[in-house]
Structure formats: structure tokens, C-alpha cells
């Protein structure tokens, strides 16, 4: 059993899915308790089908308890198209070729231990935890004497996205991490309420948001990594929610909608907020999604009337001066009061690009990729050389998007190529997805039973919203489409999905995988009902959505889709695992982030397990006879969510971010619900896991 230093709190009420109410409060401002922001009458897929029916502390599995799942089978890794040029890493300095193959690890069972549980034959260590020094000279973390100045030099709170960008020798890399949000209950001893926080404490929270860049080094010849020492650490830096200047790029940069009193040119926003998932680009930068930014603003009731509908569409309260769940940040920075600075909200909700190899370059917010509750963005280089970014808007009944660059990717790491590639996301075309099922609506009966053709599947189109300064949405300018992208999606009839989270192309096959995490409002009351792409009402467990671009052209406007995995307990008849024997797969709930190893196996992390287990990381083959043979690789401690994940290009290490450990209603620093990772109180941390024999992860 794990060592538990003190008695832990019982798990109290959960809200929406399996997520604890405290997570709902701090992470997304109780989004599930608010009305769904998308009340557009844009037809949902069910309507479309009905209208056109004729159309188509190391704890290993051995110690965690008996295992009842089946053992591994064999996988034949398919030889995919030559996309190896896109291995994450510094261009021109390819990582050691990957060695992943069939998934042979013995899955771990679901559990509720307050520990990180990994399979036999693996080990793990903490790479960075909340408060660890990042910037050279940063003070050591002192919980009792924390200051905003110290936090701005230390690892932030609630790590989410993890990217690892290697240097050429393969033994050093830059770890780039998002810090999505803070939980003041679990950060400040003696916490009573947000109203009682000092302004300095609010500034600490602001500084604990943002991103970190940390140079790391391999330990010996193993798959373990640790913070680099003995260098000048010139790349290490913090980006915060409150102090870091950004630069807007793209067609909406400088537009009237982005101008404020502090930035009359509308070009230089300060800080990044609620950075959730992200991606590593082929040119060696990191993309990061600004997600639930709405909760940081007050005063929406006094914003200009003309702005209220768009503010509300983004989940900002426009009926009260102080929403009950606001973060009180206006006490520290007036700009968070929309009564005084109504355009400030428009300066969040973008895709951020950070070049970790150029510590002096200001991070950018790319307006060409639109503004919504960006989960993240992942890029693939299309056959014609343009780059395509796939993106989800994480809200119930919101949309999937893609961006196609105007310019073409230049391979290599010459200064000319790098300078060119850094501009790829500054101009292009933005599309929203419209999805159609190919089975009769009567066969989508809400039980999860497959329709007669044997699959939840169909076709789709990418609807052009805006290209450069040309808007394709009636009544909206290009700047309006980019700033109010949700409204543009409503107008063109994009398809309402079950919370699109991480969307990532497989570099092995070119197919795209999107995690639809859940949607407990689907088919409830007056909310849109089930459709072939979102086939279960009150969807607690989510599904994986696979996109195959027609003719393999990522820049095209038509695709086919299917659901390879419909999540939940395999014993539940409404689940589906690619047709694989369901008695041999691990239960999974609320898929959130996806990743691939070099063999193209799909790795899925979860957020808010509604089956009673801790969240975890899973892996499955996605091609061949093993498609759908999902196995659980690890679980995170109590109250935590599994974020990242990131599998290094050599397949020897998997990084995960353990986000919000101990985030269980009633917990505090003084009375923690988790004592991971140090045995005292809970701290979010990035973990690396590797195989003891040095072999490829999972294989
Ligand atoms: Fe921050 Fe969509 O999860
Ligand atoms: Ca079908
Ligand atoms: Ca997420």
C-alpha cells in the first residue's frame, strides 16, 4: 500500500461527470453549472440527418492489486506515409528514431490510491513540481513566505500541457509546460475565501498561471530526465498571467476590438490565462491554448450593450457585477473589470506560440487561428507543404476547427527556414467542422447500439470562415470572425459536439484524433439530442472522434469520420472499443488529451473519471487487428487529472503532468486530500516514466 502520512479526506461530492466540485470551481468557473453558452439555432447533426435521410511514490501494478484484465496481444505496426520529418524536436536535429512497437505492457487496474501507479517493469520520478526554481537565482519555495516575485521565478501551479523539445545530442531538452489555473484553497495555509485573500496573494496566483520553460537532461543512459544543472540555463523562463508582454499577429492584430487604454494600438496583450493543452510544431516551437479565460472577468453587466451577446457566448456573466465564482483578480489589476476595460476579454482565448529556443523573443497570440475556449492546437505539414493546425473548443455543444497556412513549411534548421516557419501561423484560412452521419436517425437510438452499418461514422465538410482579411461569414468582418469565432461557427451551422478537447494528427497515418470528453447536457431538456457523432444522451464518459481527410489532403474541405472508441465501462453495452473483445480492455472515462508513440499507438489521458477510479493514461493500437485494445498504463493520485502526455521521439520516456492532486471538496493545505508527491501536502508536478530495461515505452 502507499505510504500515507496522515488521514486523508473522504471523496466528497462530484459535479458533472466525475470531476470534483472544487475542480469545477477553479478550473472552468463552474462551466457546467452555467447555461450552455451555445444557444444558437444552428441545426445540430440530428436535424441534418432527419432532414436528409436519404443522404449518407512509485506504485507498480503488482502491488496495486489483482489484475482482472486480459494480457497483451500482438500488433502489426503499419508503415505509414513518410511524415518522419515532423518528429517533435529542433528541426534539422532529428531525435533518435523511435522503437515503439506492439503494446505489450500489462495494464494496471483502476484504483483510488494516493500515488502514481505504473506497470511492473517501469519507474518514475518527479521532474518539476509547483514552486521548484525555474529562472536562475530563483528562491527556494517557502510555503509560509511565498511572494509574487518568487512565484514568477518558480514553477507555476497546475501543470497541464507538456512538450519536450530535444537538443541535437538527445541528452538535453527544453521542457515546456502550461500552468492552467490555481486553487487558492490548496496554495495558501489558513485560506478562508477568495474575498479574504490579500492583493499580494492574488498576484501570487496570477504569477502561478502561464507557462514554464525548463532545461532538462537525461539521467545516465536511461529514460529518466531531471532539471539540468551546472549551466547558465539561458533558456529557462517563466511566462505569467499578469506580467509577460505578448505580441498579437494576424488579421485581427491592432483591430479596434483588441485596443485598450493600456494598449491603444491593440498589439501587445499582457499575460496568458488558463493555458490548457497544446502542441509542439515541426519547427520547434510550442502552441498553447487559452481556455476558460471567462472566469477572470467581472463587470460584464456594465459592458457596452453591443458587446454583451458576444461576451455571453464566451461564458462571461453579463447579468451581475460580480459573478459568484469570479477570481477577484480585478482587485489586483483593474483591467479584469469589463465595466472599465470591456475589450480586455478579447485579448484572451487565443492560440499562443512560444519559441523556447529564443528566450528573448516575445511570445505571440495568433489571431488567424480564431478566438474560442482553445483546448490546444496540433500541427501537421500537408503534402503541399502548407501547415494545418487542428483545434477544439472545449465547451458543451461547441465546435471543431482547423487552420490552413498561406505559406509553405521550409524543412531544415537554417536561420532562413526558421525565420520563415515562425511566420506560418500568422496568415491563412480558418474553417469550422460540419459533421453528417451516414445512418438513419432512427438507428441512433441513444443506447449506444451501433447502427445497422456497424459504425458511428459519416462524412463532413470544413466550412470556410475567414481567409486573411476576407470574411466568408455574412454580416461579420474578418476581425469579427477571428475575435468572435464562436458566433461565426453558429452562423455557418458548424456541428455541436460533446466538448472537443485535444485534437491531434497521427504523423504515422495522417488521420486525426479528437477527444470528446463528455456532455452531460446532450439530449437533456431542450438541449440538442443525440446524433451519430455524439450518440449518447447525458454523455458522462465521452468518445474518440477520428477524422480521415479526403484524398489524404489536410488542406481540403471534405473528410470522413468515425468513432473508434466510445468510452465507459466495457461491461456497459453503450461502449465500443474498435470492435475489440471488450472483456480484454480497460475501462476509460472522459478522454481529454491524446498523443502518439512512433509506432502510431494512440495514448489517451483522462480528466474526471466518472467510473470511480483515479484518472489515468491509456494506450491502444489504432490500426490493424489490435485497434481498440485499450490498456491502462498509469493512474495519478487522488483528486488529480492526467495531463500532457508526451512521449519522446525515441519512445524511451513518457511525461505526464499530474494536475490538481488532492483537489477534493473540503481539502486545504492544512487538511490535504492528497499528500503526493512529498508526503506533506499536494503539489501539481510533472512526472517522467521510463522502462527499467531501457526499452521503448509500452512495447
Ligand atoms: Fe482545460 Fe479542456 O480542459
Ligand atoms: Ca454509420
Ligand atoms: Ca484538457
Describe the structure.
It is built from nine helices and 33 strands. The protein is mainly beta and 699 residues long. Strands 14, 15, 17, 18, 19, 20, 22, 23, 24, 25 and 26 form an eleven-stranded antiparallel β-sheet that branches. A hairpin with a 5-residue loop joins strand 4 and strand 5. It is globular, with a radius of gyration of 23 Å. It starts with 20 loop residues before the first helix and ends in an 8-residue tail after the last strand. The N terminus is likely disordered. The site of one calcium ion has 9 residues, from loops.
Explain the layout of strands and helices.
Blueprint: H1 21-28, H2 45-51, E1 59-60, H3 61-64, E2 117-118, E3 122-129, H4 148-151, E4 159-166, E5 172-179, H5 199-208, E6 210-218, E7 225-227, E8 237-239, E9 247-249, E10 275-280, E11 286-290, H6 308-313, E12 351-354, E13 364-366, E14 378-381, E15 386-392, E16 396-398, E17 400-408, H7 415-421, E18 428-437, E19 457-467, E20 470-471, H8 478-483, H9 485-492, E21 497-498, E22 500-505, E23 512-516, E24 543-549, E25 558-566, E26 576-577, E27 591-596, E28 602-606, E29 616-620, E30 631-635, E31 641-647, E32 653-659, E33 685-691
Parallel strand pairs: 1-2, 9-13
Antiparallel strand pairs: 3-33, 4-5, 5-6, 6-7, 6-8, 10-11, 11-12, 12-13, 14-15, 15-17, 16-21, 17-18, 18-19, 19-20, 19-25, 22-23, 23-24, 24-25, 25-26, 27-28, 28-29, 29-30, 31-32, 32-33
Give a quick rundown of the structure.
By secondary structure, this protein is mostly beta strands. It is 9% helix and 26% strand.
Amino acid at each position: 500500500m502507499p505510504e500515507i502520512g496522515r488521514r486523508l479526506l473522504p471523496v466528497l461530492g462530484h459535479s458533472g461527470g466525475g470531476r470534483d466540485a472544487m475542480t469545477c470551481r477553479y478550473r472552468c468557473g463552474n462551466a457546467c453549472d452555467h447555461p450552455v453558452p451555445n444557444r444558437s439555432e444552428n441545426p445540430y447533426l440530428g436535424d441534418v440527418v432527419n432532414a436528409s435521410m436519404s443522404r449518407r511514490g512509485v506504485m507498480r501494478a503488482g502491488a496495486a492489486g489483482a489484475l482482472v484484465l486480459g494480457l497483451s496481444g500482438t500488433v502489426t505496426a503499419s508503415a505509414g506515409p513518410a511524415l518522419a520529418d515532423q518528429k517533435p524536436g529542433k528541426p534539422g536535429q532529428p531525435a533518435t528514431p523511435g522503437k515503439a512497437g506492439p503494446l505489450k505492457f500489462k495494464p494496471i487496474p483502476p484504483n483510488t490510491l494516493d500515488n502514481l501507479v505504473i506497470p511492473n517493469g517501469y519507474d518514475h520520478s518527479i521532474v518539476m513540481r509547483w514552486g521548484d526554481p525555474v529562472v536562475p537565482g530563483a528562491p527556494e519555495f517557502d510555503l509560509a513566505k511565498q511572494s509574487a516575485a518568487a512565484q514568477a521565478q518558480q514553477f507555476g501551479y497546475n501543470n497541464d500541457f507538456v512538450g519536450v523539445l530535444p537538443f541535437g545530442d538527445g541528452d538535453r531538452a527544453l521542457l515546456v509546460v502550461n500552468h492552467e489555473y490555481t486553487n487558492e484553497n490548496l496554495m495558501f495555509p489558513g485560506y478562508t475565501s477568495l474575498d479574504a485573500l490579500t492583493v499580494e496573494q492574488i498576484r501570487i496566483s496570477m504569477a502561478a498561471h502561464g507557462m514554464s520553460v525548463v532545461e532538462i537532461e537525461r539521467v545516465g543512459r536511461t529514460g529518466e530526465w531531471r532539471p539540468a544543472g551546472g549551466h547558465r540555463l539561458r533558456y529557462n523562463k517563466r511566462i505569467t498571467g499578469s506580467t509577460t508582454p505578448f505580441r498579437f499577429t494576424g488579421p485581427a492584430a491592432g483591430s479596434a476590438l483588441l485596443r485598450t487604454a493600456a494598449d491603444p494600438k491593440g498589439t501587445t496583450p499582457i499575460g496568458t490565462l488558463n493555458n490548457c493543452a497544446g502542441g509542439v510544431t515541426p519547427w520547434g516551437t510550442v502552441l498553447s491554448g487559452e481556455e476558460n479565460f471567462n472566469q477572470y472577468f467581472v463587470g460584464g453587466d456594465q459592458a457596452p450593450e453591443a458587446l454583451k451577446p458576444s461576451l455571453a457566448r464566451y461564458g462571461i456573466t453579463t447579468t451581475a457585477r460580480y459573478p459568484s465564482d469570479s477570481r477577484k483578480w480585478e482587485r489586483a489589476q483593474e483591467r479584469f473589470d469589463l465595466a472599465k476595460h470591456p475589450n480586455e476579454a478579447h485579448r484572451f482565448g487565443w492560440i499562443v506560440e512560444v519559441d523556447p529556443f529564443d528566450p528573448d523573443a516575445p511570445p505571440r497570440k495568433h489571431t488567424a487561428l480564431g478566438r474560442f475556449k482553445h483546448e490546444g492546437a496540433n500541427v501537421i505539414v500537408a503534402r503541399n507543404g502548407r501547415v494545418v493546425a487542428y483545434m477544439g473548443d472545449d465547451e458543451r455543444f461547441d465546435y471543431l476547427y482547423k487552420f490552413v497556412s498561406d505559406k509553405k513549411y521550409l524543412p531544415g534548421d537554417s536561420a532562413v527556414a526558421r525565420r520563415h516557419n515562425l511566420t506560418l501561423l500568422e496568415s491563412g484560412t480558418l474553417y469550422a467542422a460540419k459533421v453528417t452521419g451516414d445512418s438513419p436517425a432512427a438507428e441512433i437510438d441513444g443506447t449506444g447500439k451501433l447502427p445497422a452499418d456497424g459504425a458511428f461514422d459519416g462524412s463532413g465538410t470544413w466550412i470556410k470562415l475567414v481567409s486573411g482579411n476576407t470574411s466568408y461569414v455574412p454580416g461579420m468582418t474578418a476581425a469579427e470572425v477571428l475575435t468572435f469565432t464562436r458566433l461565426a461557427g453558429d452562423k455557418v451551422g458548424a456541428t455541436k459536439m460533446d466538448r472537443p478537447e485535444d485534437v491531434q494528427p497521427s504523423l504515422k497515418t495522417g488521420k486525426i484524433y479528437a477527444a470528446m470528453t463528455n456532455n452531460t447536457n446532450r439530449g437533456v431538456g431542450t438541449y440538442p439530442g443525440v446524433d451519430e457523432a455524439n450518440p449518447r444522451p447525458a454523455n458522462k464518459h465521452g468518445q474518440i472522434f477520428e477524422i480521415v481527410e479526403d484524398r489524404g489532403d489536410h488542406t481540403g474541405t471534405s473528410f470522413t469520420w468515425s468513432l473508434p472508441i466510445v468510452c465507459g465501462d466495457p461491461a456497459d453495452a453503450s461502449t465500443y472499443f474498435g470492435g475489440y473483445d471488450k472483456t480484454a480492455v480497460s475501462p476509460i472515462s472522459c478522454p481529454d488529451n491524446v498523443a502518439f508513440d512512433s509506432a502510431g499507438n494512440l495514448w489517451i489521458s483522462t480528466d474526471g473519471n466518472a467510473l470511480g477510479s483515479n484518472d489515468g493514461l491509456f494506450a491502444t493500437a489504432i490500426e490493424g487487428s489490435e485497434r481498440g485494445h485499450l490498456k491502462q498504463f498509469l493512474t495519478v493520485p487522488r483528486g488529480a487529472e492526467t495531463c500532457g502526455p508526451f512521449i519522446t521521439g525515441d519512445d524511451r520516456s513518457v511525461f505526464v503532468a499530474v494536475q490538481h492532486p488532492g483537489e477534493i471538496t473540503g481539502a486545504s493545505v492544512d487538511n490535504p486530500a492528497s499528500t503526493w508527491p512529498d508526503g506533506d501536502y499536494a503539489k501539481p508536478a510533472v512526472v517522467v516514466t521510463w522502462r527499467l530495461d531501457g526499452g521503448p515505452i509500452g512495447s
